[in-house]
């Protein structure tokens, strides 16, 4: 299995602990200032891409000396730096893609970054957004197992499509059986597992799984 991780330009205080993912990731890609974060932490960089308008010349030199491949783009372009990084990730034929540093900051970027999970899933790849507080994964109809994770004890399900039908939750504090939720519904917000594991399943629509911490850790 091949795992690619992309680090974006989000606020560094929201960045997950990248060191804890070193053994899980085969290739690291830095998008704009995300490449500097990787270089600064002496992480291996397969690709450094973007317009690099958020770094100075000294930081740029560090990136260039640290990356296997450095590609600088003009600021006037059709794709965001993160989407360019994602296209590079697809070339590596991954089974999973982790996105770090893509939440917080400007809400327009955050919302479109979450939508990129749909692009990833449509290619048959598991895509996950991870930050200091949250874990987000876009799912398609089917049955999924969730293992208890002390880091992210709150579990929410948000409809990505206007309607999600046939949701069933087992092993949860608030179970459900064959229910339908729509945009604007808060019915599946902030649930918890009632044992070490649980399952969720649904028949139609697209569902966003969000696991989060109780509080922002310091």
TrEMBL record:
Record SUPFAM superfamilies: Thiamin pyrophosphokinase, catalytic domain, Thiamin pyrophosphokinase, substrate-binding domain
Q: CDD domains, per this entry?
A: TPK
Task: List, alphabetically, the InterPro entries matched.
Answer: Thi_PPkinase, Thiamin_PyroPKinase_B1-bd, TPK, TPK_B1-bd_sf, TPK_catalytic, TPK_catalytic_sf
Tell me one GO molecular function of this protein. Answer: thiamine diphosphokinase activity
For the protein in the UniProt heading, the enzyme class is transferase
Question: Which controlled-vocabulary keywords does the entry list?
Answer: ATP-binding, Kinase, Nucleotide-binding, Transferase
- Give the Thiamin pyrophosphokinase thiamin-binding domain ranges: 142-208
Position of the signal peptide:
none
Name the GO terms of the biological process aspect. thiamine diphosphate biosynthetic process; thiamine metabolic process
| Its EC number(s) | 2.7.6.2
Q: Per its record, how is this protein called by name?
A: Thiamine diphosphokinase
Species, as recorded: Oceanobacillus chungangensis
